[in-house]
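Researcher: Structure prediction, please.
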Amino acid sequence: MEITEADERHIPAIQQIYAYHVLHGTATFETEPPGEAEMAARLKKVHAAGLPWLVAVDGGIVRGYCYLSLYRERCAYRFTLEDSVYVDATYQGRGIGKMLLSRAVGWAEARGFRQLVAVVGNSENTASLALHRAAGFSITGTLRSVGFKHGRWLDTVILQRTLGHGDATLPESTE
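Model: Predicted structure follows.
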């Protein structure tokens, strides 16, 4: 399994993986799968922010992806990122999410970010919760019944992981 930076050629596979989760799962609260053009725009936005969008490629086929985005747009949040991880439904449970998230955490720590947040769709999403806990995240809260999808109310679970020195020291640059 190779972990590499995503580019335009990966968009069709990324779109298909995400579309499956939109249509059949509760990890995302989107209800209509975005097309390839929208996924390409999202990739471009992540890259324009100087952040990574990683893909796990096995035998030339994308089996999963992970990207980091700004937790919030306001300046005070500039040391905090949010992760998103999606794995091909037929390849779940093989450690792909763990490899992707580990690489993303390392990337963020190497660049001086201090906190990483995960917003997990649905409190019953045990695979994502276990993935994040194994990567050092702790649950910081649950927003009850904030989403409605597939005919039922869904929670959002917020997890957080300290990166590097966290809040124990000031960042090198506060500007």
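Model: Helices lie at 11-24, 36-48, 96-110, 126-134.
Researcher: Thanks, that helps.
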